[in-house]
Structure prediction request, 584 residues.
Amino acid sequence: MNNSLHRSLVLTAWIAGVFCLLVCAVIIRGHFTAATNDPWKSPRLLALKDQLAAEPKNKPLQTEIRRLDLEFRRNFRHRLALDKTAGWLLVGGALVLVLAAGKAASVSTKFQPPQPKTGAAELAAKLASRARWSLAGLGLVVAGAALMCSYHLTSALPADEADWQKLASKSGPEQAPAQAAPALSESQANWPRFRGWDGSGVSTNAGASAWDSTNGAPILWRSAIPAPGHNSPIVWGDRVFISGGTASRREVFSYSASSGALLWRRAIENVPGSPPKFPEIPDDTGYAASTMAADGQRAYAIFGNGDLAAVNFDGSVAWTKYLGPLKNSYGYATSLAVWGNNLLVQLDQGDSPTAGSKLISFQGASGRVLWERSRPVPASWATPIVIEAAGKTQIITLADPLVISYALQDGNELWRAHLLENEVVPSPIFVGGLLFVISPSSRLLALRPDGAGDVTTTRVAWTNDENVPDITSPVSNGDLVFTVSSGGVVTCVDAVSGKKIWEKDLGVSVEASPAILGGRLFILGQDGALMTFQAGREFRQIGQIQFSEKFLASPAFANGLVFLRGATNLYALGLAGANAPKQP
Prediction:
């Protein structure tokens, strides 16, 4: 009996050992093949790259390089799948080998000379049957493993030329070469994102003194907006960009900053992966609540359904991606941010810290993901800013309950502070070496952004709990910080101490964030009242212009002009006493 069982176990161990050797051989061969047949190092591809450098507009050449790129990706995916499957098979084979060899040794150790025993023949037959079933089971395991290999090694890439051409046309933009980032001075001269180049809402444009009079409005032009949206205008050179959309159509619009003419409108459609039907989005937020961003060559837009698009300044679509569905009970409204060649998207969503929030950095030219980081926060509506502080380029993000700083280069977390509560809508600003953040309807806080790890108790300079906004973001000239609540109460506090200097109830509802231009504080009411005040330690109103439509978007300043988006019209106002061809 023991002799028969011992032979069966030894045979099983041998089979498992041979199986493990075969798997190891497959793994070694796969790595050897990958190392010696890397298509990226092939003389042919290197020659094609050299040729493309001399002929950058050679389309057939670009197509051939992309074909080789797809070949590399296919081989790479095959090797990853093989390594994963082979690893599990090796573990299983080794386990069988160890168990069988150990049991065989045990049986051999306990071997006793044969003794007559009643029913020995029947017992031997049972053991032989069990051994056969063991071998059959091992065979089934090997067969199943082979099927798994067959399944995992099936390429997800196209098998025929037609499908490959379709994929190549989509993946082409990711092969776009890196382009030089705009100079910082260019970004500062324009208004490339929500609340200006640095998100502070402060402009250094001259000419605000022309607003001393309340008699007449210096309206240079007014242009109709073809689609609904609450996003604020952005400006680069002579172009003003806004977005709009509904469940059936989402668009980007480009206007002439000097004349107001609609230069082009581009529908964002056929986005890969974007479903034909989307979750219902509240009308108060809509599909185009997020302000766009621009880098001098492309304008970027994100919509409430999760579609992200890069549009060239000539109106052609550079690339599109689907990031949804975005789980947000009030609709997605966080605006985009740009810094150099980086496009930053803060996707906070859900009702819990584990609902899938994340921060993503894209390469602007290609749409390639540079890095992605999960965020331990629920949905928020605040827009990130990028700052230079403590020798680092930091991305500052807000969401209940955390202020988190990430490194721009790789997305690694630098520091965090547990300081926020409620549904975070106001965005942060960085002025005079301090971060000013709002915990809605609770506290205005000043933070020093030079810490590491958890800085909750070590980097708060001061807090103020008077008339704290729930929607609008703060603005500061470095000496004072100004806030305005949705009920229209303006509060001025000292930027160094946090002490309140003055407050004033304007008697209007406000959702647009305040801005500072040339020493003047601009506040835009929902009812269309554009008010200017002295940005000083004493309250003094300078002027007011009344429009006849609703305003939710924040103002933009560029080229000596003020740009405003109303519910149905886009306006440009002159700062230097320009003649107004139209009145609102």
Remarks:
- The chain has two domains: 2-175, 184-572.
- The two ends are 103 Å apart (CA to CA).
